[in-house]
User: What shape does this take?
Amino acid sequence: MSQAPSINELDADMVDLAEVDISHWDLWQNDAQWPYFARMRREDPVHYSAESRYGPFWSITRFHDIKAVDKDHETFSSEPSITILDPVGDFRSTNFIAMDPPKHDEQRKTVSPAVAPRNLTLLEDTIRQRAGNILDNLPLGETFNWVDRVSIELTTQMLATLFDFPFEQRRKLTRWSDVSTGGRETGVIASVEERRAELMECLDTFTEIWHQRAAAEPAPDLISMLAHGEATRDMVNRPMEYLGNLILLIVGGNDTTRNSISGGVYALNRFPEEYDKLRGDPSLIPNMVAEIIRWQTPLAHMRRTATRDTELGGKHIKQGDKVIMWYASGNRDEEVFPAADRLIIDRDNARQHVSFGYGIHRCMGNRLAEMQLRVVWEEILKRFHSVEVVGEPERVRSNFVKGYTQLPVRVHPA
Assistant: This one.
């Protein structure tokens, strides 16, 4: 099996693209994937990797090709998985994002009211109060890990609210999110058996919550919606499907927002002229939020499987082939986003990014994520002149979750 080129020894412009395994964790942990993606977009935007630890796959790297795949759910199916990793063994969960219509539409419709505009309006005051409390308790003049103290804490509090999960146990949600998206290579778990045991704990906990909610009057939390929804009320009898949807909702509500909160701080420190621009005009925050989500791309890819022989970019894709939409590459496509590697908080087309996907599977929680980011930056500007990054971040060792485990910072009062 071929391995990724050594990111420390090889020039991305010199290596044979056929030898590049763009899915290799080391590239992502070292933030070294960008020059390889740039070459793929220029030279081979629909790129076939014959060998990798995940088997053969196609890499879709240009913005418009990604949208073409994402919107054609009849040719490019979400089943059996939305990640490059194939389901293994007898421990397989599924969820509505890894389903095609009509089942996808029925299940999505059941839980989408939780993040409808009316509910978001009701949630905004809660988010603002909690963000303020978190920021007010940060240590001035001391170095601390922004990821843990702010990004994880805020998103986990919000998740606990959406699930009506016991607030004092909310960090279990963070743990289950990390376990579900991280294999042994990430260091989050030591074995497949440990992963299974922890996810079964998640399932057992939420099965008990399900029965409590099913026995009560319908409520606006996600589990009550599933328990009382016409298309989902018997889901508890299909444990792996229930677990899959739980993980989808946990990861969707956790990783995207937490890594964009951290990524925004990091990006503004990398491009300090944009931080100055923000301080001079806080009305740029909503557009900046979209630009942060584009620049960070908190979930690097989504996978589809070809349902029939087809052609894309002059390449012949066969039925059953694995097709990887690299959102991270599409969001750095210079033909769509000039100076794409830079954060530009007043970028005209920032909202065109593909971080939330496109078509029927577009992330239903996108407005909630944007609102959390908007509110947290409004509260940051009220309190601090700057959140200063004082060391290099440590990144998640993953080609799916594009995020951070450590971001050392100091905050300076306004």
Q: What stands out?
A: The longest strand covers residues 301-306. The radius of gyration is 21 Å. The domain at 17-413 is CATH 1.10.630.10 (Cytochrome p450). The chain has 14 helices and twelve strands.
